[in-house]
Specification:
The complex is a heterotrimer of chains A (355), B (321) and C (202).
Chain A (H helix, E strand, L loop, with lengths): L19 H5 L17 E2 L19 H14 L4 E3 L4 H18 L4 E6 L2 E6 L4 E6 L10 H6 L5 E8 L2 E8 L8 H4 L4 H4 L11 H10 L7 E10 L10 H5 L10 H4 E12 L6 E11 H4 L3 H13 L2 H6 L6 H8 L25
Antiparallel strand pairs in A: 1-8, 2-7, 3-4, 4-5, 6-7, 6-10, 8-9, 9-10
Chain B lengths: L6 E11 L4 E8 L13 E8 L2 E8 L10 E6 L7 H8 L5 E5 L13 E7 L3 H14 L3 E7 L8 H7 L4 E5 L8 H4 L7 E6 L2 H13 L7 E4 L10 E5 L4 E5 L5 H7 L18 E11 L7 H6 L2 E2 L5 E9 L2
Parallel strand pairs in B: 7-8, 7-10, 8-9, 10-11, 12-16
Antiparallel strand pairs in B: 1-2, 1-6, 2-5, 3-4, 3-6, 12-13, 14-15, 14-16
Chain C lengths: L25 E7 L2 H11 L7 E6 L8 H5 L5 E4 L3 H13 L5 E7 L1 H13 L7 E5 L5 E5 L5 E5 L1 E2 L1 E2 L6 E9 L4 E6 L12 E2 L3
Parallel strand pairs in C: 1-2, 1-4, 2-3, 4-5, 6-11
Antiparallel strand pairs in C: 6-7, 8-12, 9-10, 10-11
The chains are: A alpha+beta (355), B alpha/beta (321), C alpha/beta (202).
Chain lengths: 355, 321, 202
Amino acid sequence: MTIQFNDETFKDDYTFKNSKEALARFPFPFHEDSYMYSVNLEPHVTTRSGSVFEKGFDVDEHYVSEMRDRAEVLAQDPLRSQSLPHMTLAGWDFLELVMENKAKDYPDLFELHKDGSTWRWINKPLGIDDTFTFLDDTTLPYGPLEYIGRQTQGDHVLLDQREDNLWADAGIVTTQADWSLDFDIGMNFNQWHAPVPLAAELGIFKRALKFLMNIQLGAPARRLNWTMTVNPLLDTSPENYAEWGIQKTDMNVDTVGAKQHLRVELQTLWRLPRSNALVFPIRCYLASFEDIATVPKWGRRLHRVVRDIPDELATYKGFIDNKPLMLDFLSKFDDGLPTSDGIWPDIETEPPLQK
Amino acid sequence: MSAGAEKISVTVSEKVVLNDLVTRFQFKRTDGDSFPAFSGGAHTVIEMTDGDMTRLNPYSLMSNPLLPDVYEISIRRDEDGRGGSKFMHDKVNVGDEMVLSYPVNLFSLDLRARKQLMIAGGIGITPFIAQIKQMSLLGGNFELHYSVRTKSLGSYVDELMDQHPNNVHIYHDDQEERIELEQLLSGQPLGTHVYVCGPKGMIDWVRSTAQSLGWPESSIHFEEFLAPQSGKPFSATLSKSNVTVEVGEHESLLEAIERAGVDAPYLCRGGACGQCETRVLEHDGEIKHHDHWLEDEERACGDKIMPCVSRFEGKTLVLDR
Amino acid sequence: MTDFEFPPSIDSRPVYGKLETRPGHAHLFIADAEGAAAILDFAAANADIMANSHIIYIPKDCGEKYVAQLEALNASQLYVGPSYPAAMSRINHVLATAHMGIQLYLAGTEGLMSETRTTATNAGVSLDSIQLEHRGSLSRRMQCVHCKGITENVITDPYVCSHCGLNLFVRDHYSERLGVFQGVRVDAEDHGNVPDAVELYK
């Protein structure tokens, strides 16, 4: 399989663009015309050839540029990659998981050759050809989580399972929706979700935690999460809040279509063999409002979701102030027609915009 | 997708009688691949087909978690049990094909610990053998105190003493050797975690002694597989499936449900993990709770049951299955 | 029990109780200012463990108020120190030589309790061996999410980071590992627009 990799930026001049193919497979997160929290976990199995759900670890046209952006963020702030000492084994488990999955799913791009514990890993898009000893961190330039995290799209958090809870004890986090790894590392499931409004009252976290702790080897799970970002900026961290917070105020009726992005996280959860930990990859996909609006069903639905979302959620997700501007734009794409269930674009069957 | 963890087809590659009570079984994958690596303390659930009866029993993996060419378990013969261990000892031989589940770990090491203090009684040694193999490869500070009935019934004593002479202490019951538990638990450095696996009495003794000496709950770990107890036969109606099952004297409620062709969730099959928790819609009689999972209030309330180990005595039991 | 009723908050925000009797062979009390009263209340019901107790007390503004009463407890060791940094070497030494089964009782301001708990967990003490009872000042120990500097005794919202000078709003989001609440730039979306400082909980 050949992927044409973009050369683009996710900050400053923001040259990020989705090709037609990338937009067609964008994981639009809304399966109905309104949104409320749910424990929307499902088995992470191959679904729909060509979609982001087909492979264990999806690689797309943004891969090379995203990894370059990650390297720049880490150079500026190395605290975005940390591992408490007892999590090194889990890091090795994760390294193995990614390498085996990618070598199997993208054999033209990645190769893994094992000779006992001597492994050779070839990453063609990034020009990497490294030989190392599995489980021996002196043979890698970074700890195993950071080593493979620098080559894998999305943020990755390792969760230690103990005391009837999950603990975020390691992570590489440069594409987060406004949370700090340096602050949250070491927290348990309830603590790191503390700032999320409403969900706790609904019992969401209690049920989710129980489900997660029972995830077994060979049976990963996944869910979609979403938020809004102005400009295709991956590094929306609390640390850099002053730099990106101000960009939220810099939109008007002419620029909102191109600047306002829907930011979707494909979250997967995998049990790790030797450490018994879980890994939590959080893979970020961005699409501008004007691109989304080219898909009639998505245009209709996105307008309705934003229009009816409770203020508390819009505030927590950081877009309450821009909501009127967003609705101004989106209402042009809502002709009131019904929409099909499910997240898929259904281009063949959903009618074009009637206005 | 049926209940329990992923399954692996295996062939018995070795059967070694260690002593009068314990036999070790080694398995290789029938397709020739290696097994998944696992974390020391994990167990596998073996499917045993004995005539028209299928048993599913959990056993700790004792093979090397990091070198998974083979899986190994050791089984202690239980004359008074429901027949699973006798079936393995008497009817399973090298070359036989069986089905194992992927490893599931309900007794994992806390990797933050600065010292792992292991206390084993009898066949409870098996999870520690895997953990010690893992720590030998990866490093780590451990100390094992292993109580056996007699020298001849001391499974793996020689290997353990050979490989780890400074970290292993053996106590022979028949020579009146006893673990000096209070003393042992009184001088340990901060960051020590204690793990116990063995008969119920030993587990209760270690837990209560540690607690009374001020050890925090988070540092006390135990694993006890409850074998489902036999009991009076009873009926249970499965409301969603519209079927009534007759639970026999020597089968568990979960096994009866499975025998009726109803797919009920399970994982450990030993009353510890909570996965088989089932709502009781109606009951007229007494639920006999034998699990480690439900809270006291939940038991008293009578609206939940753990079918893998618990039973019922009375007229009516209606379950949400 | 603290006189102050903390308003209900998010799950990461610590909730303090009343020091309770626990089994153990050694008992370590660390308190500042009004926290001494919590130790005295506890000791009244647990006199038998004083022979195995080590009390470390930093009076701060309370001066001599509680010292005589603490002395009267006849703990096996009592230290009254001028400041937490001065007490650090003693605390570190006690923790380095402690055994499993030690119980920790922290009382007083959130700042002292947070910082001590972090020191203790770094030394290998489990979270469930540590009890906390709040007494006295409502000030917080805050970390600036931007420069990572910690500012002690924060009692207003917003406050000024004592390291980088940014104006930060006070979050209830708390890290047990670091022993701090999080401070975030208050004028991030509108540089220069800083609301007037208001006292916490008012």
